[in-house]
Every structure is written in C-alpha cells, then in structure tokens.
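Re-run with default settings, no changes from the original entry. Doing this only to confirm the output is reproducible before filing.
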Amino acid sequence: MFYTAEALTETIENGKEEKAKDLQKGQKIAFIATLVTLLLAVMKGAIGYVFDSRILTADAFHSGADFLAIFASWFGLWMAAKKKSARFPYGLYKAETLVSLIIGALIAWAGAELLQEGYYKLSSVTPPRAFPVLPVTASSISIIAAYFIAKKEKAVGMAINSQSLIANASESFLDIFTSMVVLTGILLAYARIPFIEGIIIILISLLILKLGIKNIWTSLLVLMDANLDPELQAEIEEKINNIYGVKGVSEVRIRQSGPLKMVECKIATSPSLSLYKAHELANMAEDFIMKNYKHIESVFIHVEPSRDKTIAAIIPVKDINGLDSIVHGHFGRAPYFIIVRLGTDNTEIEDFYYNEFIHEEKHAGIKVIKAVIKYKIDVLFTSRIGEISFYMLKNNFVDIYRADEGLSVKEIMERYRNNQIEQIVLPTHSAEEAQAGK
C-alpha cells in the first residue's frame, strides 16, 4: 500500500492535546501506584520490625525499591508535561532518565546490603514465636494490591505507550510472586524450617539487585542515545518508503527521551523536484509519523536527491507492441498504458495496463491514476492531459512531458534522453473541455 499526498492531507490539529491528556493519565496512575507502594512498604516495614519478621522486613525493602522506580516514572511523566523553554528547547523529558539512574544506584546498594544480611541469617536459628497473624495479613494485602496496581499500570501504559509504566507493570506482576514467596516463608519460618529466612532474604535481595542494575543499564543506554527499539526503526522506514514520492529511506534514528521518542531520518526523492515540493514531501513524512505514533514527540526529515538513475515512466498507447507501441493522443482515454523503467542506457518494460475506465462518463484519468499509482510513477509522457489529472499527478510528485501522438515509445525514450522533449507545466485543457471533447 502506498500513501499518496491526497491520503495524507489531514493535519495533526489535536496531536499535542492528545499527548498532554495521555501524559496526565500516566501521571495519575503512576502517582497512585507510587502512593500505594509507599504505604505497603511502610506497613510491611513496621509490622516486620515489631514482630521481628526479617522476611517481611526484606520484602519491605523490595517494595521500597519498587516505590523508587515507580516514583521515577511518575517524575518523568510530570516533567514531560512541563512546557519547553528557551533554556530547555527540547523539553525536560530526560529528567526521568537521570532520576532513574540515581535511583537504580540506590536500589542496587540496598540489594547488596540485604544480600549480606541474608547470608548471615543462614547460620541463625529462628526462636519459637506465636503465629504471625499481622505479617501474614500484610503479605496477603500486598499480593492483592500488587495485582490491581500491575493490571492498571499495564492497561494505561499500553493505552498511552508509556514504556516506563509498562516496565513497572511487569515489576508489579513479579511482586505478586515475590509476596507469595514471602507469605510462604513466613509460614515456614513459624514452623521452624532451617535456613528458610536466610534463603528467602537472599532471593529478595537478588531481585532488588536485578531491578537496580536494570535501571542503571537502561538509563545509561538512553543517555548514550542507544537504539532501544530496532523493530520500530524498521517499521518507520517501511512506512515512510511507502509514501508516494519517496524513493528511499536511510539513517532512521530513534532517540529515547524520558517517556517519549524523537526520530530523525533521510529520505531520497526525485532530483528534479523543486525545493517547495521537497519540503512538502518532508512535511508529509513528518505528519504521517506524528499522526500514527503518539509516543513520538518530534520528527526531523532531511531530504536529498535520489542517486538511483532509474525512473519509472508511464505512457498512454494505442496498442500493445512492446517499445514500438504508438502513443495515444489523450491520457485518460487511451486504451492501454505502458509502464517502463528508464535507465541511463536501457529501457525495460515493466508492465502493460488495460484502461478499464475508457468508457467512463467522467474522470477517467483520475481513476487511471488511482489504479496505476502502485507503480510509484516518476514521469508521464502524454500529448494531452486534463486539469484534474494534471494537478493530481503533480501533487504526487510526477513530472509530465509532452509526447507527440503517433510516435513510438522507443522514439519518445530517445528524445527524452537527448533532452528534446518539452515539459508540460500547465494542463493542456480544462476539465470542462475534456468532458465536451468526449
């Protein structure tokens, strides 16, 4: 499928407003998740301390680490909603990355400290104690809360394409498993199973270490502008290449900036394209990306002339006789069209197209254009063309040259190579004249 200028005329009027609303949704759920996780960490820490439940205390550290990670997500979304300024023309999106880096270091340090405590706990014996009602209750509440937080974070994260919220949702789902392990450990510790407290504390400390190291590594990759989404890169390249007038896409670069992304790329187009048309084509590519990818904040397109010297040409003809086919006198009413690939020294026939719209009362040329547009035509050779068809082709970056009726395709190609063909810069007749002529 090719995206034509006609199909991309719709502009992005509400793009920024939609992004602002998405950021507000993300801020809200991140703030609620931050608050709930903090309350859980405080509850588990207090109950674990009072009842001397080292496992629950370790789980409190784990919830505290989750709190810091979710806080970084909320902080990044909050900063992303701030307006750009002269001092920060690109926005404050990377504040989330910087905070995540610092928090990742703190989380890793807490995990290392807890790992040491778990090691010492392996050699200690759990004294007899009463049934841990409150620790068991706290762990059960943690399981339920983690489930609802994870579900909501994932739903909102997928809706607004916030990678930080989606990542936090994955961590919250992991918390459900961790809290189940903690609940089991509390019960086994009550049953005086040897080494159980130390083993579970070590397990939790390793999870905390993993979370901290992951935050540090991801933050460093973002700060170094690493390519974190090669699939999106390939998808954008394919979609832009399908825009009519684009002859190639290269150097697609995606930079993560907090919860949003910034895209840069080069597109190649016809060397004969005017500066105005090249700028219009770049705007089409930018608008297409901004319209279809809400999580992309900005797009920069650099246009350069195509180095491919082969062009696609279409010619209305009276018969099907290879390069000896004879040019027809009118674009929309020709019985056949020949599509050729014109190189520096050779001409290859790509296809013949039968004009099924030749007997249409109105707009036969427009219907032909829509049918043959899949060939990504660069040049049309014709002796006559109506007003609507002319501007439709020009809007799709097709150059139009005059081809005298009665000449063969081979003769037209030779004259074109020798610069002996005049370019048509205006329609040869109006739409009313075309209808009257029929």
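Residues 15-223 form a domain with the Alpha-lytic protease prodomain-like fold (CATH 1.20.1510). The radius of gyration is 33 Å.
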